[in-house]
């Protein structure tokens, strides 16, 4: 029998302390955690951030709002306050305006956003781990972190593959896709135009602008009328501060495999602009912003994708898979060749607006999302971030009820549609946990209106009713609040 040496317990303790040492380093550097919030257009980013901030500010008064956030559950939260405006590098996120609009007599959801926005919140807490306690005792101060939250359009992540493609490659891949199914219909005018303008004709500014305008109109139609998501380049839909910069005036053209884009041709002009876009827009986003994010939440409106039908659902599935590539590291992944140094280490995919379905269907939403995009459970840490999936409602705008339909009692949600006047029941059907089979698309799936938000107190005292905001935050930053 081997007898453990007398110092074994001390060694074990020292090892535990060493594994916590990262927190000492974090505390020493002022402990800023960069949490990025993204998702395709209308997925719920702005409402998520507004409600998260409001609930964090309210948590010290009303801990019942965030029971699944460890620091609140253990009674260690001492307070939270907004960082002074202008502390960050980006345009400020409009928390105050948003919460006031949602809490008004005639409540309104926040307006859309198409650019980067940022908000910081300082959180003070009593540390629970040994190094944190020690530092706190020595300094006489509680621990604190600044949670810096950035809101950016998920469409921008769809541009990642462009960085690995030449203009000719991108054009061929894009046009192959645009000539199929519902896209071909939406792109008819654009495809007709480029059919009359070859890549080797003389470059003309007006032709380039016309091609760009028609291509952009197609992207908007594909998104708004057909519910499609995999639409590139992302800045054509969400231009942000670029507005209508002339280097954006390009579009894909038919460029044969072996074609040489000679100077002063239409193709060469398009290629030049595509290269500037790649370098100045896509490259810069990853270099200046993305590389600083350490935690990421991706919001997905799964129900809307289901409602939009088979083409739109399939397209959203591909878009989420493409977004996932931005968080996969290791040799063989494009992102690893692009950015060195900091990595995102936790990514949460959230199925938003979970209050649109009754409680029993909410886990189905998350499961469907996981299956839709084949979101991995836990991958080796060196090769990628840690992933999780959960249903979330940032602002519960319905209540549960039951109703008899066709002789059966079913779960429904009860709420007031925006502009609709009267509260009513909505039966949304059964949410499948796997993407529907091709023959299952014939029956229309579900029906949900835009619900009016509930009554909200704009002062950060009571908070906002939500589903899983606390659980999401615990997964994303709980380790930094110990
Ligand atoms: N019922 C319900 N509706 C929600 C919730 N979150 C968002 N919504 C609805 O979804 C809409 C879009 O939410 P936003 O937060 O503005 O979405 P976004 O992703 O910021 O949109 P863009 O900035 O336009 O890309 C809102 O106007 C609400 O109608 C929620 O938790 N519950
Ligand atoms: Mg927004």
Description:
- The protein is an alpha/beta fold.
- It has three domains: 30-154 and 290-395 and 456-481, Rossmann fold (3-Layer(aba) Sandwich), CATH 3.40.50; 156-289, no CATH class; 399-441, no CATH class.
- It has 17 helices and ten strands.
- The protein has a seven-stranded mixed sheet with strand order 2-3-4-1-5-6-7, sandwiched between helices. A three-stranded antiparallel sheet has the order 8-9-10, with no helix packed on it.
- The radius of gyration is 25 Å and the shape is globular.
- Mean pLDDT is 88; it is low at 9-29.
- The structure holds guanosine-5'-triphosphate and magnesium ion (MG).
- Guanosine-5'-triphosphate is lined by residues 39, 41-47, 109-110, 112-113, 153, 352-353, 355-356, 393-395, 397, 450-451.
For the structure shown, list the relevant keywords.
binds magnesium ion, Rossmann fold, binds guanosine-5'-triphosphate, alpha/beta, three-stranded antiparallel sheet, 482 residues, seven-stranded mixed sheet, 14% strand
In short:
It contains 17 helices and ten strands. The chain is of the alpha/beta class. The radius of gyration is 25 Å and the shape is globular.
